[in-house]
Write a structure and sequence with these properties.
Layout (H helix, E strand, L loop, with lengths): L2 H14 L18 H4 L2 H8 L3 H8 L3 H15 L12 H14 L3 H8 L3 H23 L5 H15 L4 E12 L16 E9 L5 E9 L4 H7 L1 H8 L8 E2 L8 E2 L2 E3 L10 E2 L9 H27 L11 H19 L25 E3 L10 H15 L7 H4 L1
Parallel strand pairs: 1-6, 6-7
Antiparallel strand pairs: 1-2, 1-8, 2-3, 4-5
């Protein structure tokens, strides 16, 4: 048989099996063409600017905060107009992203409201979330230096009566839809799929260090071990202040600056965890209470975060990459907004929580305990020393009424 004939038959067969080309009926859908007249940003959002309370409820931030944020992020997200079409303005792009973070609604829901394509919403959320992190991280979450750690320790001593504490650490699971072909990487102990948010929080409920992207199968201790922060904690590169003598407790000698965590974390020279077990002496129970009281700030910070940004109350259906960008964006937005309230009131701002349906349970969940905790003799002795201080020189009048 002629080789040319065979090649021709093969080519015709291959072309016949190609998927027929989809003919686009229109370049832009008729409904989307009316975005400037009837889109949510150009109608509802402009009306909301006349009512500060409703604007706050819609975007989870005030008009002044929105405008200030736009001034920082706008240049990073602006697009140029082309001969084919006008670009979506940076203010509208910011509004779309904030609306997604504030509600967790699907891309299609937001696309219908703003009269843009759902693929456009997906691109906007990814780009703007990344731009928010880039624009705010140096201002609201800079890498702590030695003097910053000292200021944090002074805050914990003043507000929470815990000496030499440079932060409360904890991890939370951000529930996501199972990524394709991910196996059990993201499958956690509560039978959901998640990314782990590991955070260090100061006495003012501000995030100082965050690590996002740990697999859901990891414990708090495992996430710490695999993070850049955990590596810095082990090799001593965090620039923590040198060991100091606690005023009034010179007998104890030099004590290190420490982070406080729950039972899921290992006991290290610079990381304290509660005494394990139930049959504890009164002194150890008092130590556990005082440590847990200081550690509570990180739990409160996670609570404020999930109440402010309701995407955490949904199962997030975006890719892990986009989810990581969105989580980091909400963390710097939390600090950006929280810094405006510090000094205005000594109380933690209470955000009204609307009753949620049973199928929208909060998706920030505790991470599990790690499998083992092999502490050194020095770490064990340091915990005993802190326990001694909190039961003697560092005692507060009301602690014996609680425990």
């Amino acid at each position: 048989m002629d080789a040319g004939f065979v090649a021709t038959v093969a080519l015709v067969y291959a072309m016949s099996r190609r998927r027929p080309r989809i003919v686009r009926r229109c370049w832009v859908h008729t409904i989307l063409r009316k975005r400037l007249q009837w889109g949510e940003y150009h109608v509802l959002v402009q009306e909301l600017r006349l009512d500060g309370v409703l604007f706050q409820q819609y975007f989870r931030m005030s008009k002044d905060a929105f405008d200030e944020l736009f001034g920082k992020v706008g240049p990073l997200i602006a697009k140029a107009d082309t001969r084919m079409r006008l670009s979506i303005g940076p203010a509208e792009r910011l509004a779309i992203c904030l609306r997604y973070l504030a509600t967790g609604d699907s891309y299609r829901t937001i696309a219908f409201s703003y009269r843009v394509g759902h693929a456009t919403v997906a691109v906007i959320v990814k780009e703007v979330a990344g731009a928010i992190w880039t624009a705010l991280v140096e201002e609201t979450m800079p890498v702590p230096q030695t003097e910053d750690w000292r200021a944090i320790a002074a805050g914990f001593q003043e507000r929470w009566n815990f000496p030499n504490c440079v932060g409360a650490i904890d991890g939370k699971h951000v529930v996501i839809q199972a990524p394709a072909n991910s196996g059990s990487l993201y499958f956690n102990y509560k039978s959901t799929h998640s990314l782990v948010l590991l955070a260090v929080v100061d006495a003012q409920y501000l995030f100082r260090v965050v690590d996002v992207g740990g697999f859901g199968r990891s414990s708090d201790g495992g996430s710490l071990r695999n993070s850049a922060f955990g590596e810095g904690l082990r090799d001593g590169s965090l620039q923590l202040p040198p060991d100091t003598v606690i005023p009034g407790a010179e007998r104890l000698g030099l004590l290190p600056h420490v982070f406080v965590g729950d039972e899921a974390f290992p006991l290290l020279d610079n990381l304290l965890r509660p005494f394990p077990g139930r049959q504890l002496t009164r002194e150890r129970r008092l130590f556990n209470y005082r440590l847990s009281r200081a550690r509570l700030v990180v739990e409160c910070a996670f609570g404020i975060l999930s109440s402010q940004w309701r995407m955490f109350r949904r199962v997030i259906t975006t890719s892990p990459e986009v989810t990581e960008l969105c989580v980091k964006a909400t963390c710097v937005l939390h600090n950006f907004l929280r810094r405006k309230t510090i000094g205005r009131s000594s109380r933690t701002p209470v955000i009204p929580v609307v009753a949620e349906s049973s199928d929208e349970a909060p998706t920030l969940r505790d991470a599990p305990m790690m499998g083992s905790n092999n502490a050194t003799r020095r770490s064990i002795q340091l915990r005993e020393t802190f326990c001694s201080y909190l039961n003697e020189e560092g005692v507060v009048s009301w602690q014996h009424k609680v425990v």
